[in-house]
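Design a sequence for this backbone.
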């Protein structure tokens, strides 16, 4: 292949996320509500009947369907389905930074206001309960942080003979920071806590 042919093939190409077409894509909404004259963040407790992460605290959201035109459409659709509110009651929606995880997922978070929180009717098949936390409390109470070390475990047939160092190869073991917010007996952690802190950091700027 000639250099000129390579240049033609790549001319005007826009960079993206490598292998993004194989990633599972999800979207969530960080819902804000007005309660007793104060801004609150609303959370869901996942139903105990769910196979994945029952009882965990999360934001409304889920997998992007083929019918979802955009991640924003997905986040709003999932919120209406899980909380029983109308699309018209979700206003002032803004994108937050999206997350690309090592597990092959892309999560698109948004923040928006639910203007009719009194009409929330959680879908019992997915949501065990909902609760709110005052935004002022979250801004003034930083999370606890704990490190989780990630271990590299090659499969039994891994070709050690092809790499320098063989079985004694010095794998670079990394760690992730897990955040924990606590309020009134509820524990918020995992991706929900990471998205929450990102939003709170934006509010502090």
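Sequence:
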């Amino acid at each position: 292949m000639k250099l000129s042919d390579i240049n033609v093939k790549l001319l005007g190409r826009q960079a993206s996320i490598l292998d993004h077409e194989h990633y599972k894509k999800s979207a969530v909404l960080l819902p804000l509500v007005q309660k007793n004259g104060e801004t609150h963040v609303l959370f869901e407790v996942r139903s105990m009947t769910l196979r994945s992460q029952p009882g965990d605290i999360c934001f409304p959201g889920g997998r992007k369907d083929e019918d979802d035109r955009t991640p924003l459409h997905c986040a709003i659709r999932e919120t209406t389905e899980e909380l029983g509110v109308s699309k018209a009651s979700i206003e002032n929606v803004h994108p937050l930074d999206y997350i690309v995880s090592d597990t092959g997922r892309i999560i698109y978070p948004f923040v928006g206001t639910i203007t009719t929180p009194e009409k929330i009717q959680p879908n019992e098949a997915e949501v065990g309960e909902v609760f709110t936390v005052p935004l002022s409390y979250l801004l003034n109470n930083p999370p606890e942080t704990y490190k989780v070390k990630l271990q590299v475990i090659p499969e039994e047939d891994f070709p050690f003979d092809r790499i320098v160092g063989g079985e004694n190869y010095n794998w670079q073991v990394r760690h992730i920071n897990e955040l924990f917010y606590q309020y009134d007996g509820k524990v918020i952690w995992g991706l929900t806590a990471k998205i929450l802190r990102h939003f709170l950091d934006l509010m502090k700027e």
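The helical segments are 3-10, 71-83, 135-140, 190-204.
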